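hi! just following up on the protien thing from before. the input was this:
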Amino acid sequence: MTHTKRLSALASLLGAVLLAGCAQTPTAPVSGKTPPAPTVRADAAAPQGHGPAPVPAPVPAASPVQVAQAAQVALRDGIEAYNNGDYNAAIRKLGAPDIARSSKANQLSAIKYTAFSYCVSGRTRQCRQQFDKALRIDPAFELDTGEDGHPLWGPVFAQARKAVSKTAKPATPSGAGRGSRP
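and the predicted 3d structure came back as:
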């Protein structure tokens, strides 16, 4: 994605957020005078003589496009933090809820870079947990060629992959087990 497209997407998302906030802004009365604030007694359920308390307008849910854009921004920012050596920031950004609600490809990419961040910062157990999570989402998940042999996370990923292959049940050859008792 080009820099211009990224800025355009970010500007669109920011505009949508600002407009959503404006939709709930109260308007001034036509007369130009501000009405007096209602007084509420501590024991009163609602202001006397003013009817029920106003119900705030519901906040519209984010559209799938907005969620996808927010996930792309979070993923890009997380990978950028990883590339800059800020592994804790990468872990935080890659764990954004927007990514968890996005496509499987985005989730797997975020999980992979989170695993890398844990491994390079000496947290092997959390690294393994992330690889396990990726393999639960997609049992065929693989690292890229240059990533697979990395001295820090390569062996951790190999262990996770091996554990998944052990738990997968082998196919029974046709006819096997027929006529025999357990």
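The mean pLDDT is 75.
The radius of gyration is 27 Å.
cheers
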